[in-house]
C-alpha cells in the first residue's frame, strides 16, 4: 500500500472539524496519472495530493474522479506539511506562509474551478439545505454578520463520487472573496473555519488551521 499522510485542513478554533486531505509525500511511487486517479478514488478524500518535488513544492491534485489544476485546501495543507514558501501547481505558483496557528496561501481567482456561488437570506436557510442532485458545484452562503465579514457556507460538489458535501472549500472561498472584494471569516460545513483577504493585483490570501491526523 502506498504511504500517505492524512491532514485536517481549515479546522475550527477548538481544533475539530476541517476537511481531510490525503498527501502522498513521495509522488514517484505512483508516477502514472491513471494510477494516481485510481488511488484518489480508493482513498475517497475530497482531494488527494501527490508531491512530485518536496523542496520546490511541486504537487499534483486529484478528486476521486478528476485531476485539478488548483484547489485551495490541498495547497494550504501541503504548504503546511512541507513547510515551503510556495506550492507549484499546473495552474500557477501559489505563495505560502505560516502565521502562528494559521497556514496561508495566495492565489488568483481564475485558477479556481468553476463554482456556482448561491446567496441565501439567512444562515439558518443555509443550515437547512438538503444535498442537491448531481449537477453543478454549488457554494451556498449567507451573511452571519455582514459588518464583521462573517459568513455561513456549505459546499455541494454535485458529483456522483461519494462526496455529497465538501467540509471546507478553499477555491470557493477564493471566488467569493474576489466577488465581494473584502476579507471574510467563513464557517463552512459542520464547523470548519476559512479566513480570506484580498491582496493587490487581484490576488487573494486563504488561511486556516492544519493538523496532522495520521
Main traits of this protein?
18% helix; Diaminopimelate Epimerase, Chain A, domain 1; 14-stranded mixed sheet; alpha+beta; 214 residues; PhzF family phenazine biosynthesis protein; Phenazine_PhzF-like
Overview of this protein structure:
The protein is an alpha+beta fold and about 210 residues long. The protein folds into two domains: about 5-105, Diaminopimelate Epimerase, Chain A, domain 1; about 110-200, Diaminopimelate Epimerase, Chain A, domain 1 (Roll). Helices cover about 20% and strands about 40% of the residues. Strands 1, 2, 3, 4, 5, 6, 7, 8, 9, 10, 11, 12, 13 and 14 form a 14-stranded mixed beta sheet that branches. Strand 11 (about 150-155), helix 4 (about 170-180) and strand 12 form a beta-alpha-beta unit. The longest helix has 11 residues, at about 35-45. The radius of gyration is 16 Å and the shape is globular. The model has no long low-confidence stretch (mean pLDDT about 95).
Write the SSE topology.
Layout: E1 5-11, E2 19-24, H1 33-43, E3 48-53, E4 58-62, E5 67-68, H2 72-82, E6 86-88, E7 93-99, E8 102-107, E9 116-119, H3 123-127, E10 138-145, E11 150-156, H4 170-180, E12 184-188, E13 192-198, E14 204-212
Parallel strand pairs: 2-3, 9-10, 11-12
Antiparallel strand pairs: 1-2, 1-14, 3-4, 4-5, 6-7, 7-8, 8-14, 10-11, 12-13, 13-14
Amino acid at each position: 500500500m502506498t504511504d500517505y499522510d492524512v491532514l485536517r485542513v481549515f479546522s475550527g478554533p477548538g481544533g475539530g472539524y476541517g476537511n481531510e486531505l490525503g498527501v502522498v509525500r513521495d509522488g514517484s511511487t505512483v508516477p502514472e496519472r491513471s494510477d494516481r486517479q485510481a488511488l484518489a478514488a480508493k482513498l475517497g478524500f475530497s482531494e488527494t495530493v501527490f508531491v512530485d518535488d518536496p523542496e520546490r513544492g511541486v504537487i499534483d491534485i486529484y478528486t476521486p474522479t478528476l485531476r485539478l489544476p488548483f484547489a485551495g485546501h490541498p495547497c494550504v495543507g501541503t504548504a503546511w506539511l512541507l513547510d515551503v514558501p510556495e506550492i507549484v501547481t499546473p495552474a500557477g505558483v501559489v505563495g505560502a506562509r505560516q502565521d502562528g496557528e494559521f497556514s496561508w496561501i495566495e492565489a488568483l481567482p481564475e485558477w479556481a474551478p468553476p463554482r456556482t456561488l448561491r446567496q441565501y437570506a439567512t444562515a439558518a436557510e443555509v443550515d437547512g439545505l438538503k444535498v442537491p442532485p448531481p449537477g453543478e458545484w454549488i457554494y451556498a452562503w449567507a451573511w452571519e454578520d455582514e459588518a464583521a465579514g462573517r459568513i455561513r457556507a456549505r459546499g455541494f460538489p454535485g458529483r456522483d463520487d461519494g462526496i455529497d458535501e465538501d467540509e471546507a472549500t478553499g477555491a470557493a472561498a477564493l471566488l467569493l472573496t474576489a466577488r465581494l472584494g473584502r476579507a471574510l471569516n467563513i464557517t463552512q460545513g459542520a464547523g470548519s473555519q476559512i479566513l480570506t483577504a484580498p491582496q493587490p493585483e487581484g490576488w487573494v490570501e486563504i488561511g486556516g488551521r492544519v493538523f496532522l491526523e495520521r
